[in-house]
Each structure stands twice: as structure tokens, then as C-alpha cells.
Catalase (Virgibacillus kekensis), 682 residues
Amino acid sequence: MSDHHYSNSKDEQLEQFRSDDKGKKLTTNQGLRVSEDEFSLKAGERGPTLMEDFHFREKMTHFDHERIPERIVHARGVGVHGEFEAYESMEEYTKADFLSKKGKKTPVFVRFSTVQGSRGSADVPRDARGFATKFYTEEGNYDLVGNNMPVFFIQDGIKFPDFVHAVKPEPHNDVPQAATAHDTFWDFVANNQESAHMVMWAMSDRAIPRSLRMMEGFGVHTFRFVNAEGKSHFVKFHWKPVLGTHSVVWDEAQKLNGKNPDFHRVDLYEAIENGDYPEFELGVQIIPEEEEFRFDFDILDPTKIWPEEDVPVKLIGKMTLNRNVDNFFAETEQVAFHPGHVVPGIDFSNDPLLQGRLFSYTDTQLIRLGGPNFHELPINRPVCPFHNNQRDGYGRQTINKGQVSYHKNSLADNTPETSTPEEGGYVHYHEKVDGRKIQARSDSFKDHFSQATLFWNSMSDPEKEHIKQAFSFELTKVESESVRRQVVDMFANVSMELAQAISANLGIEPPEQGGSTVTKSSPALSQENSPKKPDTRKVAVLIAEGFAKKEVEGVLEGLEKADADTDVIAKTLGKVKSDDGGELEVDDTFYSAESVLYDAVYVVGGKNTDSKFRKEAEYFVNEAYSHYKPIGATHEGKDLLTVDMKESSGVVVSEDMKNFGKDFVKALAAHRHWDRKFYSFN
């Protein structure tokens, strides 16, 4: 392998495929220069278009085929480039080269996505989020294809089509889009109770993240680390966002989907363009193979977590996302992930859902990307050389030379030849397998409720309230009374408190029996225990004519030092005048700026505040308050707050400007202030 040249940068590897058309001549796809691009070739000025107009036919044919089939799930996504850096050598556990030494860097491409909706759906539905990472390693591409939730709805891959059919828009009328609040989804849940744990996650705040930069990622399945000596450890993968894990509230999510359906992708794009590069630490949970059966759950069950208090997460590296794509279609839309794309040192377990995915993904790419050569698309190409006897097929780019395309051979000295493990050849872990052919599931997979209760026990009071509200909202949309009843009875096995709250909101009799004896909790599951920082939080600054320029600029400088972002919002665009005749540039107006687009509000007002500004600002502030967001008010802005607001948590009102900025930044870092006790159904 010493003759291989590896590119240190995915940028370098992609460069040959990029084009810059500025100053270039228009040509056909064959390179022929075009003399006319406004009129098709006709038989006379008013005659029919001629078939011999090859430029017209090429242009139109390409246009007719510009769209590829969207993904059945994870259709709506956004992709970004970045880099992964290892914290330390993991050679004790795995021979994977990209984890072999401290400081080793590997280019990556990450695609975030929603699961249910079409490409045209909105960014903030109640849904799981895809979190797929392609590592362009020197040993080949490694794909860690996960979600922002560590478990899934089913235990066996054979049930995946059933789950997706149930969660997608109902076939008789193709509604609702990107939503689980309908009969077929909840009928599936009630009759496939292995989904209980995942449903708890889906009804929690985890399903409506504040930002793609502020959500965890999980490999979901149990994989294997295998070291150079052939010793195996079971492993689960985690992505921990440096900014912490945070969410919006449901009323806010619904409004965001109307005000800005692209909220998440815009947030991610702007953060990277502004240099606020999202960072995620890669963590692993490791269990020695000989300890496979020491837990009270089956470690191969994809509906179960390994509680972090029982199996700690070891942080082994950090990923920094630092470059947006150049072309959405060529990169984000054409990227092809597969959990079977592994490198030496990473192998599979017998998780039956993972085993199903290992078949499904290649099959999916064949139909989406037009054939077996999707690996040759620039975004999918490895940075290391690849040689094999595969030939032809749709979209083939490699021009293979020579007459030999088979193994073994003598005409080409038996090349390309296989590699020994010492040369980097992949060898599957030699797991002993002994058993009868059977269609069944282990009894150790049959406990569907204990970890659902563990999740419930781990939630803070506000998080529990949000789960109750989510179930109530969803089941209110279910038309079948029988399905509603079945779901309530099912989740009585998780928590009687939860089941009784749902039944009360649905107007049905509470379950007569149920409850759980599980008392264990896992603090790591609650977002309340996640890091809280003011970094990259967006603050709306509401300003009117005659504002106190010197003091307000001091507050804005303090927010900037705290790495928060501010937008000045006024009645009109342009500039707003201060009390000393100075001016401040306006970023947005009440016509298009909404409180749901911001993490906090700083209301200033001004000496020339009029009734229109007051009306708009009061609505802005009241909505932010109802979503538990931090609110700061000084000068004339204090008059826009009610007495109850001024006395509430997270509302900073100060006559002393000396401490206001510091107190407001502290409130901003807290993200939400749930102890306002303002629990509405929203």
C-alpha cells in the first residue's frame, strides 16, 4: 500500500469535479461551443422545431431528468462538510486508522434530515432527525448512519416497510404531511408495542430541536470494535453537541413551519457562513464481549439504550462542521450513505434491525442514483484509490484499461489482488454462530416498557408536561376511538400518571390497571442537564426612534462578547435615530421578524415610541414570554411589559444599566425559564 497517494483534503479530491463558468463559453455536454441558446432550430421563422436540433434536445432531455427519486425516508435534508479530529489513540479497542492516534484528522460530510416528510416539507415537524456522517478515511469511506434518538420503533428490519407505511401520509388521501398525528401511525404503535420506548422519545422535546447544531446524534445500533489482535468489544456511538441539546416548544414549532419552513437549514447555513462552526464530540460506550449478558436488557435490542450511568460515554474526538456545500443537488441530494460502509476495526453485531439495513441501503441507492456507480459521484468518492473488477452500468465514469475484469487471472498477474489483514484487508470478525434456521425473536427482546418508564422517570417536570401535551395533541387528531383507547391502555404500562393525563384530555375513562414498578432514572436523558451557553443565541432587539444610544450599544457589545447574535428590529428598514442624533442600522422589521425566529428579546423602545411600535412590540414580547424565552427591557421598553412579566423568571428589568447586560446574558444562557409555571396546551 506504500504506492498509494492519499489526499489530505476532501476539497482537493473534489476540486477536479468543480466548475467555474465565469468567463467561459457555452458548450454542449460534449464540449461543442453553442452559437444560439435563445431559439430552437425551426423550418422557417414560424415553422416547426426540427429533430436535428441536438442542442435543444440535449438541453431539454437533461432538464426532463433533473430530478432523481427522493429518499423514501429522510427526503428533506441539509448537508455540510467538516473535519474530525481524534482526541487519543483507540488502538486498544479498534484498528480503525482514523482513530489510531491523537490529533489525526479526517474529512467528513454530514447530512441532517427529517424522517417522515417529503423534500418539500418543513424543517420543524415532530419527528426524529437523521444524523449521517461520512468519514473519508485513508482506508476507505466509513458511514456512521444514525438519528438524533438512540432507539427505534422496531426490533427487526423486516418490519421497517410496515412502520414507514404507517407513519407516512395515509394512502387514501395522502395526508397528513410530515406528521404522526393520524390513525395509521397510532394504530401501528398500539399493535406493535415494541415501539413504546421510541414513542416516548418522539413525544418528548427531542423531536423538535432548536437547531441541528443543538441536538445529539446516535448510531442507534450495537456495533463492534475489533483491535489488531482480533479482540472484540461491543460499541455504541454518540455525537454530543458542544452547545448542548436544546429544543423549541410545540406552539413555537408549528409557527416556525409557517414563518420559516427552512428554519433549521438556514440556521445551520448562516452559522457556518458566520464562522460559528458547529462542533460535536464523538463518544463511545464500550462493553467487553464477555459481558454481553450481564445487563437487565439485551444489548443487541435497538429499542433499548445502554444507560450512561451504567456504561459511561468516553469522548474520543471532535467533529467541526466548517464548510457549506457548493451545490445542494450534487452534494446533499446525491450523497449515498450505508451502514455497511465500514473500515477495518469496525464490524457488526447481530442486531436484527441493523442486519436488515445492511441489505436495504445498497438496494435503495440503485433506484435513487440510477445504478451501481453511485460511488463515483464526487461526493461519494473515497479519498483513497479504489480498484476492482466491477465494470459498466449506468453513470460509469472510470475508463478501465486492459482486457481483464475478473479474479483470478494470469493475464494481469492476478491483479487487482486481495490484501492481507496486515496490508489493511478487511476481515469480518470470526464470531461463532450455531443454531437452527428459525423465524423468531429472542425472549430477551420482549420487555417493551421498562426503558420507556426509565425515560419518563428521567424527565424534568416541564419535560413530562410537554410529553403529556404531545400525546394529547397527537391522539386528538386520531379519528378512531378504538385506537385512542388502545394507546392510552398501552402507555398505562409506562406510567399511570401519563395515561391518566392523556385520557383526561381526550375525554375518555382512565385505564383501570397499569403502572410500572421501574423506579430507575438516567439523568443523562434529560435536556435540563445539558450544557447551557449563550453562544450563537439569536436576540431580537426592538428599537424605536429616540433610543438611548450609548447604553444600548453597551448592551449589544456585551452580547457580542458572549458570542450571541443580535438583530435590530424596528418599524421600517434603513436606520433608526437615537437620542443623541446618532443612527443604528436596522436588520429587520415587524413585517417579517417574528419572536419564534429568536431565542430572546431585548426591548428598548425609544422616546418617540408610537402606538404602532407599541402594538407590534407587545405582541412580539408576549409571544416570546409564552414560550419561556429570556426577555430584557430597559428605558421605554420597560413600559411594554406587564407587572406579572417583570416579576417572572428570566425577565431582566433593571434601572442599573451596569449589571443589566451581565444579568441578561445569564438569562440567555439558560435558554428557557420553565418556572414561570405558564403551562398552556401550546
